[in-house]
Every structure is written in structure tokens, then in C-alpha cells.
Amino acid sequence: MLPVTTRMKFDDILQMIGDVGTYQVFLLLMVCLTSLPGGMISLSGVFLIAEVDHWCAVEEWENDVSNCYNLLRSSENDYLQCIHQYRESSVPKSFDDGETVHDECVKYDTEYPDVWSKDYFASNFTTNTTSCDNGWVYDRSQYASTVTGDFDLVCEKKALVETTQSLFYFGFLLGTIIYTISADFIGRKFTFLISIACNLLVTLATAFSKSLVMFGILRVLNGAFNVSMFTAATVIGIEFVGPSKRVYAGVLISIAYGCGNMTLGPVAYLFRDWRMLQIVVACCTAPCLLLFIILPESARWLISKNRIKPAVEIIRKIAERNKTTDKLPPNLEDILVEENKLSACEERVTFIDLFRTPGLRLITINTMFNWFVNTLIYYGLSFNTVKLGGNDYLAFFLSGLVEIPAYLISIPLIESRLGRRGATCLLELIGGISCITTAFLAEGVAKTTVAMIGKFCISTSFGIIYIYTAEIFPTVARSAGFGLCSTAGRIGSIMAPLILALGEFIEFLPLLVYGIIAVTGGLLVLLLPETRGTKLPDNLSEYNGQTNRAYQAEPKGGERVCIASRPLKDTDIEQAGREEGHVGEVRL
Fold it and tell me: What is the dihedral of CA 571, 576, 580, 583, to 10 degrees?
């Protein structure tokens, strides 16, 4: 029988010098600083492009309406009473379930007096209507200004609201591609610096948009650089944490991201002008530039680029901060050189390989769909928060607040008897049922409570699906699997605002669609294998019930050379050993 030897990997070195020592904790906290503005930017569209109450403006009463706006500084009730009296005099109205509904897109077609009188009603003179040829009046009781009002995204242009929201999440998809290429070419650290600088500049520039086209282009770039910034920082932070603690590191970063979402509510309340809100959020991003000085380059990337000495320096720095220098192997540099050489022997997998066999194909499609489900529902419920009735800022704050315990509970939940599969299934089912129930509830505490239950469940499921995906794909296919699933998730975020537009036709339809999709995803999870307590597959052949063994022949000079990385028979190994004059190494 051939001897089997093991080679030390980067993760093994991390375990020796501390999985999550003082230095790694410090790095994670620094990464969390990036998550705060990242979370704020990701959902800022809720307030930037908020839909506000509006009606046709009357040119003759323009100065009177301006005087009403001035009352808002002293009394909101006086302001509402003032501004609504002009609406009553000029806009058609109807009744729906006992409530008065004013038309938003037409006014009575008549000659209006230059001086308004409380006894004047245009309906007394005509029943004919006309479009809003003089623009619109926007209620400023909750928002001083919005993109919707500044660019008149109402009536025939109302569909542009959801389209503009989706553009930002298209930027997420674009940013994922940019990060993947840039991080491999120039490294995580420089990608991080460029992403922060560009994100800061684009966020700031958006506040000075002169047209909807300019705003849309900048929002695409904002989404791209925001996700690239967040991903680069997260990768740097997590890569220095040992394998046994990465789940906790991921949860910590998710909590910081949720805190960013939660913080956005109070900040938007204080700065109700969308342009000023953008400037404030940009200022929150500025301190992240200092992290370039603090964060090291990814040691894994340095090793992959054969820059061994800088990688050794970073590892020694971690050991010094953790006070574990005595545990470093004396031949550290040789170990890293060896890892770089042998990495070329490892199985190379593309996303196409995930669809070659029926079993893995179904698992890939199912997992992708569940990423789509979680992202779609998460962003859909986040945007729908301000449509629950009541105070928009408070509702959004609560929506962000429920994410924190949701991420915390994800760890004990997946380690319970439910496992990864059972927990994901249960959470998506409850989340889906909550969406369906919310769709048919009247505005009030009950509707908000049920909606928050749905957001809680989907946030928890979102945290679990990351861990589940990392375990369900073979080691060699993990990056390809994550890439596909992330892409499916980005498509979900793009679709979320567009589905909300269905509410213009049937009010309860968006939440009903979200609910049905979530329940479907929850049921399909049951078809996935459970990974809790199981040995994770390393390669595709092993995943399909085979053993893929890579053979390295070691010439007399001591340098190991990769002979093959396909499934090898014992006769192949013996023959290769005879050709080299010795027995080779079998690495399982």
C-alpha cells in the first residue's frame, strides 16, 4: 500500500497561530466599518425615490401653495390643512370603501381665479378634466424632496420609479463582475481602495444629478462600486480567520450590514432632502479610505501570485499580534512555495461542470433558485416597508432592527435538529406565508407586525443560505457555485422593485407573488441534501460517488511535479512510480 502524506495549507497555518486572535478580531471590526455605509447605500433608494402624495398644480395658485410649504416649519397640521384646501378646490375625487380618493393625474378643465376662495370649487363649473399641464404639487410632510418629485416620476412616468430602483441592483451584478476581474488582477487591497474612492465620488455626484438619465447612470455605478467595496473588505477580513470561525465572522459582518440599514432610517428622518441625504451617506463612506492603511493584502492572493515574501511578512505580523510566533513552522516560506506549486495540480472547475451530471445539475439549479428567492423577498420587503402605512422612517428602522436578531439566531438554528435544510425550509415557508397574510391585512399594527415576521425569517434564511451553499458544493467547485448563486441573487434584487410595480394594477399582488415564490423555494429546499454533520466533498468525482486522487511524483531533486489530476487507478500510480524510480505521493 502506498504511503499517504499530508501537506500543510494556509488554513493549517492559521489554526497554528490562532483561528481568530486579537489581530483577526481587529480586522473584522475594521471591515464592519465598511458594512455600515455599505448597508446604508444599498437601501438608500427607499428614501431617494420614495413615492409621495401628489396632485395637479394650478398655475394661478402657485404662490399660495408656496406659503403653505412655509407653514411646515411651525405646524404640520396647519400645513396639511392649508395645502389640502387647494386640492379640494381643483381635483376630482371619488370614494373607495368610505375613504376619499383624490385623482393624482388630472384636474378640472376650467379658468381658475387668481385669488383662491374657500367657497370656490371647480366642480361647480365643469365636469371636464385635463392633464397636469402645469406640473404637480407634492406633499412634503414626510419628504422635503425626492427624485420622484424633482423629475416628476408620476402618472405616465410612474413606471420609471421601479425601473430606476432596479438600475441600482443591476449595478450590483456589474460590480460582482468588476470585483472578480479586478481582485484577481491587482489584488483585494487595491480593488478595495479603488472601490471606496469611486463609491464615495459617485455617491456624492449623485446628489448633484441634473437629469433622470444622469441619476440613473450614477446609480448603476453606485451599486457596482458599493458591492465591490463591501465584497473586497469582507474577503480580506474573512480570509484571515480560521475555517472553524468563518461562520461567526460572516454573521458579524451581516449584523454590521443590518446596522447600516437600521441607521439609514434615523439619518433619512433628519435629512429629508434626497440630495442632502446622499451627501451625508457619502460622508459616512469617507472614513473607510483610512482602512487602506490598516488592512493588509490578502495572503492567499499573494501566494497565488508567487509573492511569497510579502505573504510571509503578513503571517508573521498576525502571529506577533496574537503572541503565537513560537507556533510558526520554521520552514514557513518553503511551505508557502510548495502550496503555490501544488495549487496548479488541483482540479479546475468552471460553472459548466456544475451542469454535467444530473444530480449536481439539479442541486445547482435548486440552490440558485433559493438565492433568487431570498434576495428577491429581502429587497422586496425592504422596499415595501414604507408602504405599510404610518411613519415611513419608523417602519424602516424596525425593518432593519429585526435583521440583527435574525442573523444571531441563524447559527444555533442550523446546528439544531432542523439542520441546514430544515431551517431554510421552515424560514422560507413562514416568510412566504407572512407575505401572503400581509397582502390582505388593513394598514395598522397587525400588518406591520406580520411584515416584520416575514422580514425576520427571510433575513435569517439569507444568513443560513450562505453557509449551506459553502457546504453543498464540492471544494473545487465552491467558487463557481457561489458565482452562479450570487448572479441568481442579483437577478432577484433587480426583479424586486419591478414586482412591486404590479401593485399599480392590483394592490395586494406584489406581496402575493413574493409569498408564492418564497413558499415554492421553501418546499424545493427539501430536495437538497442535508450537510450538517456530514463530510464535505472535495471534488466533483467524489461528489458523484467516485474518488478523485491527484498524483505528484517527486524527482530526486525534491521538487514535486503534478503528473495527473484525473481519477487514477492503482496501476497508473504504480506505473508512474516505476517510471520515476520511486513511490509517489497520493494526496486524497
Answer: -50
> Nearest Cα to 103, choosing from 121, 81, 87, 83?
87
3-state secondary structure of 94: strand
**Cα–Cα distance measured from residue 337 to residue 328, given in angstroms and rounded to the nearest whole number:** 16
Torsion angles phi and psi, residue 341, rounded to 5: -70, -45
Which amino acid is it at 261? N
Q: Tens digits of per-residue pLDDT, 437-489?
A: 999 998 888 888 999 999 999 999 988 887 788 778 776 676 678 788 888 99
Q: Assess contact for 28 and 241: CB atoms under 8 A.
A: yes
Residues 405, 562: Cα–Cα separation, whole Å: 48
Q: What is the pLDDT of residues 18-56, one digit of tens each?
A: 778 888 888 888 888 888 999 999 999 999 999 899 999
Supply 166's cell numbers. Answer: 432596479
Determine the length of the chain. 588
CB 459 within 8 Å of CB 403 = yes
558: left (phi over 0), alpha (psi -120 to 50) or beta: left
pLDDT score at 579: 38
Please check whether residue 391 is in contact with residue 50, taking contact to mean a CB–CB distance below 8 angstroms. Answer: no
Place of cell 451581516: 254
pLDDT tens profile 78-124: 898 889 999 999 999 888 777 888 899 999 999 999 888 888 999 99
DSSP 442: P
Q: Nearest 5°: CA angle at 308, between 304 and 309? A: 150
CB atoms within 10 A of CB 411: 16
**For 19, what's the count of Cα atoms within 13 Å in the CB-facing half-sphere?**
8
Q: What sign has the CA pseudo-torsion 35, 37, 38, 39?
A: positive
Residue 420: closest CA among 464, 372, 374? 464
pLDDT tens digit sequence for 252-273:
888 888 899 999 999 999 999 9
What are the cell numbers at 188? Answer: 483585494
Tracing cell 433558485 back to the chain, one arrives at 369
Phi, psi of 141 (to 5 degrees): -70, -30
Q: What DSSP character marks residue 236?
A: H
Query: C-alpha distances in angstroms, 139 versus 81, 90, 99, 148, 229?
Result: 12, 16, 19, 12, 36
3-state helix, strand and coil shares in percent for the chain, rounded to the nearest 5? 70, 5, 25
What is the Cα–Cα distance from 374 to 521, expressed in whole angstroms?
9
Residue 44 has which C-alpha cell? 438608500
Strands (E), 57-196: 93-96, 99-102, 106-108, 129-131, 136-138
Q: What are the residues whose beta carbons fall under 8 Å from the beta carbon of 418, sequence distance 6 or more?
A: 426
In the chain, pLDDT over 70 holds for what percent of residues? 87
Write the single-letter amino acid at 490: R
DSSP for 482-506, please give it: HHHHHHHHHHHHHHHHHHHGGGGTS
Alpha helical stretches, state H, 358-418: 358-384, 392-401, 403-414
How far is residue 583's CA from residue 169's CA, in Å, rounded to a whole number? 55
